[in-house]
């Protein structure tokens, strides 16, 4: 019996997508969209995301399968679905701030966001390699469109083409890996594959297929040596696309790695530690030192994203529930800080007309609230005590110490010091340098409330982590205790 009730969050998200699609079709090709219609579209998206969030909460502690075991509901899937929908909720004001008064239509962009969310939701419940691949492709194709969405601006088109080429290469790695595993096992069902890996742990075709899949996922999260696309795509893509790419796409790649590495593939502790500690070290070094000489804020955030991927990979090297708890909490902290930064960038984009770091000179004088929020978010990314980023890094590095990775812990601490330099360099520009224009940057009430919510999340995660830590620990614990059906 197909337990269709397990798909309630997906049904609700699909319903919201169809509703918005019908509204967009009925409106027709309007060259000068009405501001009231745009606000109605955004409000509908916000209300729809709240409904999806509520429907997801209903299955927070449920487990089960549907569609012949190709769809699974468990704590890990519920955690990431909540993460994805909350990210989408924050993406709506970021998108509105950026696309307001632009020629490109915000409504179409929001539809692409909802399509991406559907791919992420089905990805979180995929229990089959083929379904996993289809969901990854839905997400990736949506990002191709979003990266090149500013069709009147050459950098955006260039960004979309670069992402298309690199994304196609990553997809080829995934397809080849899946093909090798299917040739060896004759199935793409994850529980069946787990049994095959247990029965034949040294099978060369299985191991080779696994390595190709890990390489393909390395592209998705921006890990070295699969990271070269990140700064270029971040620099040219629209700000909302970069925000969703840095948070949503990275979380999707982390989710697939968690699902496959700890519930499907069979690696000894020493093999996993060697592979992921090496990847983590190289990624932290490349990301942190690559950011030092950047003059574009989006490129700097691209290298920062690479460095944060390195910290996340420490949890995979450690492996036990403490390491995975750190990974999940780190994702929450990273999302809160990154979305704050990109919301500020979207608000000031029209006034600065540039993503160069020097363009942000004197931002705190032109808008104290934007300068303060930017400052707090950068401190969180750097891992300053009292912020969410500090506690996320603390959990990751503590797990590394307990796992015996003292050298990786020291490297992580060096990375924190290096990141403080380039993050505080941006803070110096915002606070210490004189602005090119004295005109104040207005911040409407809706944006103020969103910023308060995000910055409040940074401090709540940093100062009162207990309930969130408990949820992350429960999810990590169930990852190891609950086998795939």
Low-pLDDT stretches? none
Separation, N- and C-terminal Cα atoms? 15 Å
- What's the overall average pLDDT, rounded? 90
Count all strands and give the number: 2
Q: What is the structural class? A: mainly alpha
Measured by DSSP, the beta-strand proportion falls in under 5%
Number of helices: 19
What is Rg?
Answer: 22 Å
Note the run of SSEs as H and E. HHEEHHHHHHHHHHHHHHHHH
Short description:
This protein is mostly helical and 485 residues long. It contains 19 helices and two strands. It has a domain at 277-485.
Q: How would you describe this structure to a colleague?
A:
The chain is globular and about 70 Å long. A hairpin with a 4-residue loop joins β1 and β2. The chain contains 19 helices and two strands. With 485 residues, it is mainly α. α4 runs antiparallel to α5 and α8 packs antiparallel against α10. The protein has a domain of 209 residues. The two termini are 15 Å apart. It has a two-stranded antiparallel sheet with strand order 1-2. The model has no long low-confidence stretch (mean pLDDT 90).
Layout: helices, strands, pairs:
Elements (H helix, E strand, L loop, with lengths): L7 H20 L7 H23 L6 E3 L4 E3 L1 H25 L6 H19 L4 H19 L6 H32 L4 H10 L4 H18 L7 H8 L2 H25 L5 H22 L6 H22 L2 H32 L10 H4 L1 H15 L5 H15 L3 H27 L12 H19 L2 H16 L4
Helix pairs in contact: 1-2, 1-4, 2-3, 3-4, 3-10, 3-13, 4-5, 5-6, 5-10, 6-8, 6-9, 8-10, 9-12, 10-12, 10-13, 11-12, 11-17, 12-13, 12-16, 12-17, 13-15, 13-16, 13-18, 13-19, 15-17, 15-18, 16-17, 16-18
